[in-house]
Specification:
Radius of gyration: 28 Å
Shape: elongated
Structural class: alpha+beta
Largest sheet: 4 strands, antiparallel
Number of helices: 10
């Protein structure tokens, strides 16, 4: 790890590109928060970087988030609403400046990637690694395969014996009638929008409450700022589109805030959907503003 914050930050920026390159080769999908979190795991904070700032985030995290703009400026990183992606120049940079010191120097000086550096491909998988992966998959398959007892393979016991004769007879008649019905009359019903929406609700668990906690909560009517426990800070959930929204009238100004779940700071998300990340920032011209939060991406959209 580097001796100071500047060196550590460059190491983490290199880790960001390495992580995104690995995700390209593996086909994994990572949001910005997951990329930043992994970069910090690879290059942990020192004591100074671990100190919490007034917004409740580590100093090193704030520095890394701000410094990521250098990767964008160099053309090695693209930040979009759907997340961060690494372009070809970013992939080439991981090869051209493989050494951490060379990477930091090139990034700080704005040195372009040499034209003769080819876009790297996924590193070859070693035979031992392939064998280990195959063994792991076989073991996982064995563990997840349902165990069939010998008794279950034997001829099943007829549970219908418990059913009274009239019911069994009625069931048989109903089955025969269904079999005789022409296939043309058995067209499946199309799922309605409400059915699809209900299915989506079931497959995406949501928090009990989502709050926008920031330095404008008093403007919303809350007793204090940066307090996710008050009703005035809570967002409304739309189960059809699976989004949380809050619309407010704010005076012109610069505001900062974070998304806090379940009326506490135990789980919160900042810029780029990073857990315990840097504050979201809002330069507002004044008037109504709508903030939308997606729990699927952990990020927000301003409208």
């Amino acid at each position: 790890m580097g001796a100071n914050t500047a060196e550590n930050t460059n190491l983490r920026l290199k880790a960001v590109l390495d992580i995104l390159a690995e995700s390209v080769w593996s086909g994994a999908t990572l949001n910005a928060g997951e990329v930043l979190a992994e970069a910090i795991v690879r290059v942990p904070f020192n004591d100074h970087e671990a100190e919490l700032l007034s917004g409740g985030i580590p100093r090193g995290h704030k520095t890394l988030t701000s410094a990521s703009a250098k990767l964008v400026k160099a053309g090695w990183l693209v930040k979009g609403r759907s997340g961060w992606t690494i372009p070809e120049d970013g992939l080439r940079a991981t090869v051209a400046f493989a050494d951490a010191e060379a990477f930091g120097a090139a990034l700080d000086a704005g040195t372009p990637v040499p034209a003769d550096v080819a876009v790297p491909t996924a590193p070859p998988v070693k035979p031992q690694a392939k064998k280990a992966a195959a063994t792991k998959r076989a073991a996982a398959k064995k563990l997840t395969a349902p165990k069939v007892a010998a008794a279950d393979v034997a001829e099943p016991k007829v549970a219908a014996a418990k059913v009274s004769a009239p019911r069994a007879k009625a069931a048989t008649a109903k089955a025969s009638s269904a079999a005789a019905e022409p296939a043309a009359k058995k067209s499946p019903r199309k799922a309605t929008a409400k059915t699809k929406a209900a299915s989506a609700v079931e497959t995406l668990p949501q928090p009990d409450a989502v709050a926008i906690a920031g330095d404008f909560n008093k403007i919303l009517g809350a007793p204090e700022d940066w307090a996710p426990q008050y009703d005035e800070a809570q967002m409304e959930f739309n189960p059809i589109v699976q989004l949380w929204t809050l619309t407010a009238e704010l005076p012109a100004g610069f505001y900062t805030y974070k998304i806090a779940l379940n009326r506490s700071w135990d789980e919160n998300y900042g810029a780029f959907g990073a857990r315990d990340g840097a504050n979201h920032e809002l330069n507002h011209d004044g008037g109504p503003v709508t903030i939308t939060y997606s729990h699927a991406t952990r990020d927000i959209v301003i409208g």
